């Protein structure tokens, strides 16, 4: 019984993720002031999805896990209902040419913010009660795959409002994108760097540049590819974002008589709709050349001399080189020491007064960010924990942190920093 509940919860979360991605990409979410909340919901649901995927292979599923999965189901239904209402209001607004009524805008915004809080609580509940563990009942490969999913989704959940040191990378990336060049073939630009550097955040800051991207491109889409993705759902989501929800609804109605909606039906609709448009598409978290070859071959027009752009984020430099040429690859580097220290102090809410308590404390703070590899995710994780500790305890906390990230900025080292930080704090 618990097995069925977990599988059903994962399926429902997948639907909610797709709807949240579509809603976040809609300009109306920006006007309502809830775009960041919807992005957060989408990213946190992806993390929950990764945990549920790990739970599906566990042999011993207890009652607590079943209850948690049922809570995830209920939450997914509520998110779907809310985003469906959001979509209906946006559609009626576009048809009437009038803004949403103030009462409707306020009510929907409040519902979305409440859902964000519920998503956060449900996600924390899993961590609090250790409901899902990657035990020996899973193979090593399965365990690594699930942990990579979880770690990378955590990396995606970096709060942009907390970040520093991203103004220059954003400016440099916009230069590579060269938005003012509105003719010529489609260009592919890649952002490369390990999990936790903030690739997704940089891409999102660029994507949401109100003064840049929307004013130069006729349609835009944000697509999270990740390690395992549903081909039909990705194409549906791209049609929804690039051509409009009406285009997808019309296509699905036309295909109602068919036994199966084939990938090719969706691809043909997308390619035809994009052939005369200048589009901007982000493919976030690309993992394999097979995924790139499939998306590039099937989803985009072969000829489009409109100056369209595809922005890819990936951890794999070799993959980036196969997607585009070296001049169009942006290598995101760890933060500068000063920015890393600023970020840590901002997260702890202690500010510069910590640095004024003595030379020894300056050294401890500097050593802490170096031990985090100057990676935003690790710094924010550690900073969140230090915020709950007395300043006098920071030195002891530093001594207990693993040192891998100082010399080895890979996923395993990042994972140890994140997991052991919580272990030390408890």
UniProtKB/TrEMBL annotation:
GO terms for molecular function: ADP binding. The keyword Repeat applies. It comes from the Eukaryota. Residues 184-348 form the NB-ARC domain. InterPro entries: Apaf_helical, NB-ARC, P-loop_NTPase, RX-like_CC, Rx_N. One of its GO terms (biological process) is defense response. Keywords: Leucine-rich repeat, Nucleotide-binding, Plant defense, Repeat. It holds the Pfam family Rx_N. Transmembrane segments: none annotated. Residues 13-98 form the Disease resistance N-terminal domain. Belongs to the disease resistance NB-LRR family. This is AAA+ ATPase domain-containing protein.
């Amino acid at each position: 019984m618990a097995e069925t509940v977990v599988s059903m919860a994962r399926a429902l979360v997948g639907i909610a993720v797709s709807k949240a991605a579509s809603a976040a990409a809609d300009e109306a979410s920006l006007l309502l002031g809830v775009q960041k909340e919807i992005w957060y919901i989408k990213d946190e649901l992806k993390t929950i999805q990764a945990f549920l995927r790990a739970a599906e292979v566990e042999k011993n599923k207890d009652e607590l896990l079943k209850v948690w999965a049922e809570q995830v189901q209920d939450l997914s239904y509520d998110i779907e209902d809310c985003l469906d209402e959001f979509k209906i209001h946006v559609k009626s607004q576009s048809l009437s040419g009038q803004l949403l009524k103030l009462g409707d805008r306020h009510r929907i915004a409040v519902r979305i913010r409440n859902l964000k809080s519920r998503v956060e609580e449900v996600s924390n509940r899993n961590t609090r009660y250790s409901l899902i563990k990657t035990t020996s009942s899973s193979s090593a490969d399965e365990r690594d795959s699930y942990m990579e999913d979880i770690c990378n989704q955590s990396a995606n959940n970096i709060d942009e409002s907390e970040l520093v040191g991203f103004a220059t990378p954003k400016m440099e990336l916009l230069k590579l994108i060269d938005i003012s060049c509105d003719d010529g073939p489609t260009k592919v630009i890649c952002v490369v760097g390990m999990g936790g550097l903030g690739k997704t955040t940089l891409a999102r800051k660029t994507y949401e540049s109100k003064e840049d991207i929307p004013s130069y491109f006729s349609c835009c889409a944000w697509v999270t590819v990740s390690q395992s993705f549903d081909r039909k759902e990705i194409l549906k989501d791209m049609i929804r974002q690039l051509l409009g929800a009406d285009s997808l609804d019309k296509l699905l109605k036309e295909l109602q008589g068919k036994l199966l909606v084939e990938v090719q039906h969706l691809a043909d609709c997308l390619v035809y709709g994009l052939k005369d448009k200048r589009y901007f598409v982000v493919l976030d978290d690309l993992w394999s050349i097979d995924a790139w070859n499939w998306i590039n071959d099937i989803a985009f027009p072969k000829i489009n001399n409109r100056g369209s752009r595809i922005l890819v984020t990936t951890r794999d430099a070799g993959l980036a080189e196969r997607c585009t040429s070296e001049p169009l690859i942006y290598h995101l580097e760890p933060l500068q020491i000063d920015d890393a220290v600023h970020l840590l102090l901002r997260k702890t809410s202690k500010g510069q007064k910590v640095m004024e308590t003595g030379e020894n404390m300056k050294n401890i703070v500097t050593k802490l960010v170096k031990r985090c590899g100057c990676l935003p995710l690790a710094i924010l994780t550690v900073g969140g924990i230090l915020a709950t500790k007395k300043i006098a305890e920071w030195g002891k906390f530093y001594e207990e942190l693993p040192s891998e990230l100082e010399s080895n900025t890979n996923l395993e080292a990042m994972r140890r920093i994140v997991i052991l930080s919580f272990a030390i704090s408890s």
